[in-house]
Amino acid sequence: MKEISKLLDYRPEIRVLDATLRDGGLVNNFFFTDEFVRDLYRANIKAGVDYMEFGYKASTEMFKESEFGKWKFCKDEDIRAIVGDNDSDLKISVMADVGRCDYKNDIVNRSDSPIDMIRIATYIHQIPAAVDMIEDANRKGYETTCNIMAISTSGEQDWRAALEIIARSSVDAIYIVDSYGSLYPEQIARICNLYMEIGAKYGKEIGIHAHNNQQLAFANTIEAVGDGVNYLDATYGCLGRGAGNCAMELLLGFLKNPKYNLYPALQFIEKHITKLKADGLLWGYDVPYMLTGILNQHPRTAISYMGENRTDYTEFFHILTGRD
Amino acid sequence: MKEISKLLDYRPEIRVLDATLRDGGLVNNFFFTDEFVRDLYRANIKAGVDYMEFGYKASTEMFKESEFGKWKFCKDEDIRAIVGDNDSDLKISVMADVGRCDYKNDIVNRSDSPIDMIRIATYIHQIPAAVDMIEDANRKGYETTCNIMAISTSGEQDWRAALEIIARSSVDAIYIVDSYGSLYPEQIARICNLYMEIGAKYGKEIGIHAHNNQQLAFANTIEAVGDGVNYLDATYGCLGRGAGNCAMELLLGFLKNPKYNLYPALQFIEKHITKLKADGLLWGYDVPYMLTGILNQHPRTAISYMGENRTDYTEFFHILTGRD
Predict the structure, then answer these.
(1) What is this model's ipTM?
(2) Which helix (H) or strand (E) element contains residue B95?
(3) Residue A114: which CATH number?
(4) Number of domains in chain B
(5) Best of B178, B192, B236, B250 to disrupt the A interface by mutation (most A CBs within 10 Å)?
(6) A144 Cα to chain B: minimum distance (Å)
(7) pLDDT for B30-64, tens place per residue?
């Protein structure tokens, strides 16, 4: 059981990362208004959030710029238009997917960029390519994290092997990513143990990025906090793909470090998140996402089903599990 | 850390109680259609649920029958109209509040009633009255539980004293009740330890009834399962006061005993819960409930605020915390 003295105190090493634009961008193809992004930036500063992720650094060869909002690509000039010289304690991050980012050309030296951290997202079968991206970003002066996605589809032997390769790189933090929202806190505790063990061996921080398919994104995040995980992803109003993520407002309400403030989060949600909901943007816990979570499947079938405004959940259950 | 062998196996002692009518009745003043109640009864049987709580046994002296649906009062003949002789493994429970139930007159002998279990709900300052109700119900042949409400407003010394009194009664199970949805899994673990210690001493089962103000109702329930708690409350679609309860569908998806089935729950939700939502009944996680949860307050202010369709969360924060 966790020590009560630790529950009432705080670890100054904890870092909160706002992934609203990046994971939320998967819901609206990154079409956020500049006002939304500017207010989010200000809210994060006032709330004491440590990192704000603006979106992806996606290859313009692979993705048409006309089909997405600008935060799919996160050009330095677009970030600068929001943050200027970013005269604040808030650091800027972007995500770069293995195989979907022209990192050698599109990521310039940190000294010439408003970006502070590159987060490399990888599946477990792409680790060497991820390491190449980590080393490229590290050479250019960036902080880096490596986010191994969809770990619920592989097992402990694979995780260990992958972690050993990644941890030997120059990466600063390695993320536990529950892409399908299928993991229970009891499993998160075991996974944290493994990541923390290898992180300690190589001097790496550990992070967590959770999804809310089973209403466990916040619970899994604070389970990880109790297990020693320091990098925590959250999004305002849970905004994120499918069932969404750990709610920033819940996390700020939980953390004890006085640098974190809930009130600016309420201001932002009141002005912007309620509007997205009212405008019909679809995200957040619902039965179809629960089913893909329980069945450890990618949420894409549930997202497509929800987009049709259907509520014939038993039929969706058959779609997911087959009738043969 | 919990044993992995226990996580993949199950305890046959676990009992699932459907509190949809009772806690959901607090949302719609118990005005459920007979079709809703009949389908719920059938869904519970098919899903393998162990107990179905029909509502409250409220005093008709204190509450006008014209102002509530019949499940506020749970007359035996109304239950019989749904369940007949209840030729099933599903047991029937009702809740009796200390100070709001004319139990000596309104609760007849179990042999003359369709009810199997009386759940006595009490605040911590009413324990002797609760014990009187427990003994009355026990003498009449019922299973009994004692649900100590709003424990987050008192401390461990009080809990211990209350538990020692209750555990010496003839009660069968004692419930941990997080009425305000303010408790984190780490606190639930500690509370379970205390309840389990005293439960073991007197041979009593322990139960949990959670609220979802911080999206933790399911997480807290499965935390308690891992800690040895056997009586688990849930409601379909989280239907319950304010932020609602632990979702039955999540719980059935989690439990490993093959007697539990998710599919009938999906059928019921598809037919009935989606309709209540579409008709505008208000329940389930939202920012105002989160705030009363974080602040460890009764949800009534949030319920009233939500009823006005307001989203000025910062103003609500001031209402809760004061401006002086």
Answers:
(1) 0.96
(2) strand B91-97
(3) 3.20.20.70
(4) 2
(5) B250
(6) 31
(7) 999 999 999 999 999 999 999 999 999 999 999 99
